[in-house]
Design a protein that fits this description.
It is globular, with a radius of gyration of 17 Å. It is α/β, with parallel strands linked by helices. Helix 3 links the parallel strand 3 and strand 4. Strands 2-1-3-4 form a 4-stranded parallel β-sheet.
């Protein structure tokens, strides 16, 4: 079976998509090929790096990348994490499945450092919840493929 490829897209590839990339790579223990990109990439927001470090995930080596790098590449899942990215890229060529998660941009947060970090944490937790759902979806699809390829087709039971 080929590796499953997931791409997260947002406008700047500086916060949400970077956090999602780090979370999914961590949760999948490196078994999925995970990347993120932006329509107009900027540098990674330092608060995104800080927020992820709080839960033991280091995204400081990740780089902001242009969406153009992934055009024409086969991807199993393309997930837009902001409305602007979805509007700019409603259909992604080469994507087996496109999903949209409308997640607020933490880079727009105002206030003290602690108030801004609270917004980043909320976004991180929403991404974490959605990534858990995505992993369940991926597992279900893999189990379906295995069942079809082995001729099981339905529920199988282990010998008693």
């Amino acid at each position: 079976m080929l590796p499953i490829k997931v791409l997260f897209l947002c406008t700047a590839n500086s916060c949400r998509s970077q956090m999602a990339e780090g979370l999914l790579r961590h949760r999948s223990r490196g078994t999925l090929e995970v990347a993120s990109a932006g329509i107009h990439p900027k540098t990674i927001h330092p608060d995104a790096i800080r927020c992820m470090a709080e839960i033991g995930i280091d995204i400081s080596a990740q780089q902001a990348k242009s969406l153009d790098l992934f055009l024409g590449e086969h991807l199993d899942y393309v997930i837009t994490v902001c409305d602007r990215a979805r509007d700019a890229c409603p259909v992604f060529p080469g994507a087996a499945e496109s999903l949209h998660w409308s997640i607020p941009d933490p880079a727009l947060a105002q206030g003290t450092q602690e108030e801004r970090m609270r917004v980043f944490r909320q976004v991180r937790e929403e991404l974490r919840d959605r990534i858990e759902e995505l992993l369940r979806r991926i597992l279900d699809r893999l189990l379906e493929r295995i069942a079809r390829s082995s001729g099981l087709g339905g529920a199988a039971s282990l010998p008693g």
